[in-house]
Amino acid sequence: MTDKIIAADVIVCSPTRNFVTLKVTTADGVVGYGDATLNGRELSVASYLRDHVAPLLIGRDPARIEDTWQYLYRGVYWRRGPVTMAAIGAVDVALWDIKGKTVGQPVYQLLGGAVRDRILAYTHATGWETAELIDQVVATRERGFLAIRAQAGVPGLDNVYGVHKGGGEGYEPAGRGVAPVEEVWDTDAYIRHIPGVLEQVREHVGPELKLLHDAHHRLTPQQAARLGKALEDVDLFWLEDVTPAENQDVLRLVRNHTTTPLAIGEVFNTIWDAQHLITEQLIDFIRVAIVHAGGISHVRKLFALAEVYQVRCGPHGPSDVSPISLGAGLHLGMATPNFAIQEYMGYDPLVSEVFPHAWSFDSGYLTPGDAPGVGVGFDEVLAARYPYEPAYLPVARRLDGTMTDW
Ligand code: EZ4
Ligand code: CO
């Protein structure tokens, strides 16, 4: 039996990039950690937690995880949205961490136990030119990856989503500074170029390697249908975020024209954002991350809904989802039958020093480890040496200057 919560502290740090961490402490000294990072809006979530949530946690029973979730979600008139749900997600993960540490079990054991031995992971390969991309895909496969997301430059464009211009690994879209970088984007040029690139990658690596691609919300329904069709021979594991998913019915048009599997959901915050896409079977993979959709308690329900409709789970896992959320997602993945793959961009070594973790990557697969709780720590002293620095995702304009989806 754990004593009541006596402290809930929010720490914003920037070891190479910004992270928001919630630290919940119980009267008998058990500490749970949750991730509340929302790229480019970190301080909003920190304020939501500090000013509105932390005072409500003091004196609560940390064992009542679902009740606390309901209290923070249903008990507040203004619901949903990324800021609110990231804050609730951080509390939820911290309480699962405390429960696991209290009973001396890794969280996946509390979720019903393992349904698999390890979790397939994919990472990113990028190349401005096709030859460079092929080199990177091959080098990434040599690091053990069995599934790789391939993104390429587009002739005529200076910036392309997912492509690190310096070459090689380490694509990080958020740029430091008080305002976002502005990029110029042309979907027509992208669609003309990318099928040929991905065909060459497939030809080079052979049929077995799982290849993925992210269109990052930039196509019209018709363009999406056409791209999906053009990529069928590439045999993608998935094509991600073809259209901005607020307008969900358009996926029916895309579906009717292509068998390329569709993945969506990294910007979703609740089960209700994905309900229609899942029950209408308009997607093949749901991509919500633990941190952005209310934590383990809520994402577990979403994944269970997906299971009913043969939609599989492939959560968002960029470097702006902290090692705490990645760990929490791996525990859920171990216990979720319809979990397919985890995105794993990896972290700068400094990030792993600030967040020492029991989870690990080996030969294409991630495992959460058997440390009690989530199994990710937080070195507050080291973190304090890297204070918050403003940083933002880019914005994009079309060739004629109108704003478009980045
Ligand atoms: O743009 O994490 O699939 N991965 C992605 C990411 C997102 C960033 C946003 O913060 O689309 O690169
Ligand atoms: Co994406």
Question: How do you describe this structure in short?
Answer:
With 406 residues, the protein is an alpha/beta fold.
Please, what is the average pLDDT?
Answer: 97
Catalogue the unreliable spans: none
Whole-number tally of structural domains: 2
Helicity level, as a percent range? 25-40%
For the sheet with most strands, the description reads: 10 strands, mixed
CATH class descriptor of the largest domain = Alpha Beta
Q: What do we call the CATH homologous superfamily of the largest domain?
A: Enolase-like C-terminal domain
Number of strands: 18
β-strand amount: 15-25%
**CATH architecture name of the largest domain:** Alpha-Beta Barrel
Bound molecules: (2S,3R,4R)-2,3,4,5-tetrahydroxy-N-oxo-pentanamide, cobalt (II) ion
Shape: globular
Indicate the radius of gyration in whole angstroms: 21 Å
- Helix/strand class: alpha/beta
CATH topology of the largest domain: TIM Barrel
Number of helices: 13
Euclidean distance between termini CA atoms: 48 Å
